[in-house]
Amino acid sequence: MIANMKTWDIYVGSSVDIPRRFKRHIRELRKGTHFNPRLQKSYNVYGESAFNFVIAKECSEKEARVCEQKFLTEFCGKDFCWNVAKVVNEPNTGRKLSEEHKRRIGSSNTGKLKGRTLSEETKQKIGAESKTRVRKPFSNAAKEKMRQAKIGKPAPWNSHPKGSEWGRRTVEARWVKEGKRA
């Protein structure tokens, strides 16, 4: 939970790696790029010293989202809660966008590349070029360099968090699907 100690406003969140999550919040707030506009505005007005990062409840990884949802159900929608999403993992649930807002979002996302609007001629050129692009084969030196980089590292199916057998079955199934193995 992030709390502004001057206004007593809060932001509720959960994480399995709390120090990393707090560092991310602080980094984004300092850069002025935090995804929550109300929290960012408060940070800009009151400064970092007005904020306190609080662990409201410690729970297991499985219970974390359930606990967060309980807090959101209790606080979200009240004036002192900065959370926009009313449902955990569904950031747009409960948000109502006007037809004008939807139209503006749609028009801003059409035909753009890194902030530039492309002409139809440019789009045609990009499309034609992307269809003819073929990667050159790796040289023997490049292959050897990649092989050396992999020596001593586990194979992909041995490094999966759910275990090696699960990972092996998943990777092999993907290879069969892609036609790399029969």
Notable characteristics:
single chain; about 180 residues; mainly alpha; GIY-YIG endonuclease; 3 domains; two-stranded antiparallel sheet; 7 helices; extended
How would you describe the overall organization of this protein?
The protein is mostly helical and 182 residues long. The protein has three domains: 2-75, GIY-YIG endonuclease, CATH 3.40.1440; 99-132, no CATH class; 140-177, no CATH class. The protein is built from seven helices and five strands; from the N terminus they run ββααβααββααα. The chain has a three-stranded antiparallel beta sheet, with helices on one face.
Helix content: 40-55%
Outline: extended
Number of domains: 3
Sequence of strands across the biggest β-sheet: 2-1-3
Number of helices: 7
Sheet of most strands? 3 strands, antiparallel
CATH architecture of the largest domain, please? 3-Layer(aba) Sandwich
| Structural class estimated from helices and strands | mainly alpha
Question: How many beta strands in the DSSP annotation?
Answer: 5
What is the C-level CATH assignment of the largest domain?
Alpha Beta
Spell the H/E element sequence.
EEHHEHHEEHHH
What value does the Rg take, in angstroms? 24 Å
